[in-house]
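Two entries, shown back to back:
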Amino acid sequence: MLVPRWILRSAVAAAMVLVVLMAGAGCSASKTAPETLAQPTAADGLANLRDLFRQAAAGKATLPKSAADFATVEPFYPVAGPFVLSGAVDSAWGAGLKQGGDAATRLLAWETAAAKDGGWAMFQDGTIRELTADEFAAAKKAAP
């Protein structure tokens, strides 16, 4: 059975119009890239560092015993790296994630400014929250 030419021409024309409309829908001169990108925060760095601790807990990575040890794996943790290597974030190196007991109250990693000004901290159970300087002073550090 043959399809009349006028139906084929109409279908081709409709398809071409649809392609043009779809192509034009995403092209707008008013859309511009942002002037500056948001910089990662210490909380972002701690979240990336938590990835390392999670991998170590799963047996897929070795816990760093120091910031120097962390430097060897830093390329795999590009958000945490600058914070740790600059000293803006410190950790109870050698300690890892654990659940239960007092893990929710033991500091595993923290923003170094937290001792004086308050800041972000990660606890041994993996939670990350902002602490005041007094809360930071009262918290115990995780033991390796």
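entry 2 starts here
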Amino acid sequence: MSLMDLARSIQDTDFAVALASSGYFYPVIEGTHVLSLALAVGTIIWIDLRLAGITMRGQSFTRLYAASMPVLLVGFGAMFVTGLLLFYARAADVWGSGYFRIKLILLALCLINVLVYHFIVNRDVAKWDTDVVPPLKARISGLASLVLWFSVVTVGRLMAYNI
């Protein structure tokens, strides 16, 4: 069984058919996905702008990060759940989209950037926590995150309008 066959079998389940054809539930899930995306990525933007040394200079990065995490986690949690439901409802259509595959690659790159931040950049955060301009590795991580997340959002919207 190919991945496309698996996607078709998912899309053909009673739940997926009911979800995709719902005049109320599907649009609510889609709207919630967009709003949770705004919440999560909007929070990431503030963190990344500080990490890049562009805004909130001199403010404690660790304080900003700690205060932002609950909001970020709620946004990502809702975005993940609604994204799965949206995929489930139109799995074959989504899997057949080149935009979806690009989005998956970009999300993987976002994950790699998060891991680099946590295991390399964040190790010495105490040294630069309140510096006006963080070290180069922090600025690169923040700017890379901004570019990647803007790309994920752009490709995701292109996908939504082309399937």
